[in-house]
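Table S7 (text form). Paired inputs.
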Amino acid sequence: MSEKKCPECGAVIVGRSDKKFCSDQCRNAYHNNLRAPVTNYMRQVNNILRKNRTILETLNPTGKMKVHKNRLIALGFNFSYF
């Protein structure tokens, strides 16, 4: 029977026959690396949304005013995300 190797570090796996990683650290690192691009994109979108929300709250604390589009643009409001 061939030796199974850890997909993260390449170490030989000892233990159960259905074990895929040599340690919890390798398992976590492997799955974190798989999710990294998605997580980074979500973080960027959340930052844009947070900035938009802050701009709106600053200009319109009661939620009943109209704000001119040029003023929002000047403050960095991103109209692609709302």
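Next pair, protein 2 of 2.
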Amino acid sequence: MVERILPQLFSGNNDKWECRGMTTFFLIRHGETIANQLGYIQGTMDNKLSSLTLQSKQQIKDYQRLIRELKISYVFTSPLIRARQTSEIICQKSSLPIVSDDRLKEVSYGEWNGKLLSDLKKNYSSYIDDATNDLKPSANRVNNGEPYNHARKRIISFFKEVARVVPQENVLVVTHGWVIKTFVEACVDSKNTLNFNNPSNLSLTKLTLEQGKSHICFYNRQYDVEVIE
């Protein structure tokens, strides 16, 4: 839980969302992994194939200026290796601590974690969306993965809690494509992540939360001068 790591900033009822000001979130999807290159779906897979490629590690070094230019006060990450490596490289020249939170993990695809997407398309095509290459929420019925509603609740709870605990701050969140899509669709009161294209590796999404209201500033942009403005 966030308040255990930042106790000096926590106050109030843990079950109640009481933001004291606008929190700005910059969500970044992890860098490209070996598994991404080879066409595996990862989910909660966390082995050598989920490590970042050498090229991706080099690309992420360009993001080190992000901490200063976006005036980031807090950094949170998924504990999975691909997100953790990304956040560690970004913060290499910063004194900011990196806070790991299990709620930022990618959704688990159960028995399909680490499977080739091409094989799943051949054998389970009805559970895969053609436009996004995402698994449909109904896929957990056959792969014993994490139920969509469970994943959605944990993701939303993270952002609500951070907005309450660190209001009026700029927060960097290093996480996964499905996590980003799920929170964005919650912000627009949708329950279908298939409405959104997958965010690219190392893309940024910016949104704000204030008094229970959300605003999406941009989605799935590459980090450049335009993003900073």
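The chain is about 35% helix and 15% strand.
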